[in-house]
Amino acid sequence: MAHQLRDMHGAARAVAYLMLAAGPYNFVTGVLMKLGDPLGQVIALAVTSFILFTVGLICLRRPQAMPRLFWLLVPLMSAGVITGLNVGTADATMGPQLFYLWPLLYAAMFLNRRMIALTVVQISAGHALTAFQFQESGQALLDWIAITVAMSMTAVVVAGLRERNDRLRGVLETQATSDSLTGAANRRAFDAELDRAVADADDHEPLALIMIDVDHFKTINDTWGHAVGDLALRTVADALRDAAEDRRHMVARLGGDEFAVLLRAAPYAAVRFTELARAHVGATTGLPCGPPSLSIGIAVLPDHATGADELQKVADAALYRAKEGGRGRSMMAHPPQRLPASA
């Protein structure tokens, strides 16, 4: 998304802590320590301090009360407030300019590159407005260049570190939720996706659970060795992925030679999937043991079950019947038994 907030909880905490610190700081340094300044200026700073503190409390206690656009515009608004305070206090020294680091770091941590660039531009313009108004032009130019370069480099470094961290986290998440041998999802990822998919399923988009066992897999390992067995498992996983025909699906290896597929499909489409999967496996060449045979059980929500546990139970029962019936075949789950309505 063009304007996506990466971490709502982290962003809310960052804004809250800043505002809760900035409000009292601004009140002490801009109001209590400058009571002799023009009354209008003192009142404006006092009101600003109150608003900052109030916004901080809201962000800390009820961040959901703030509109989403607020979180996206926070660095621009903060940079604007800092510029206004610097101009209002006629302070172009380097110390107050350091407060620009907060909106910059917020943008670099939580927003995209376009918002980061806009924040840097606003900070540069805001400092120029202050420096050229209250400093000698030569010194103002040097300070403006220094602030602009420092903020730009800080943004590049922080954003780069964030993106690298995101890539590393993505790798770790993939490793934690996938099977290293086949690349399919693991049991942990499957259980989570099954619960989510069942909760999202409806009559217009049924959910099929397909349970697969590789027939006589122990014989393949014992006869041809584990390397060939591993190749057979990878072949099956690839065939299951290729057979999905662009439907939303998840292929998972539940353990050993047992696989499961979650597929957005009605019963007929689920059967069609199993036929394609068998065809892909059957077309495999280069396996010393030959293409492995598959036993498959199929269950569809809401035709055969009403919840995740029941769906998995009836799919397992269908798989068991396929194996009992001679293996190398697919079986559909039985419709659930419904009690007759009372008179």
UniProtKB/TrEMBL annotation:
Gene3D superfamilies, per the entry: 3.30.70.270
Domain GGDEF: 205-335
Gene Ontology molecular functions: diguanylate cyclase activity
Source organism superkingdom: Bacteria
Keyword S-adenosyl-L-methionine: no
Transmembrane segments: 12-33, 39-60, 69-88, 141-161
Alphabetical keyword list: Membrane, Nucleotidyltransferase, Transferase, Transmembrane, Transmembrane helix
Pfam (any one): GGDEF
PANTHER family named among the record's database cross-references: DIGUANYLATE CYCLASE DGCM-RELATED (PTHR45138:SF9), REGULATORY COMPONENTS OF SENSORY TRANSDUCTION SYSTEM (PTHR45138)
Protein name, as recorded: Diguanylate cyclase domain-containing protein
Native species: Actinoplanes sichuanensis
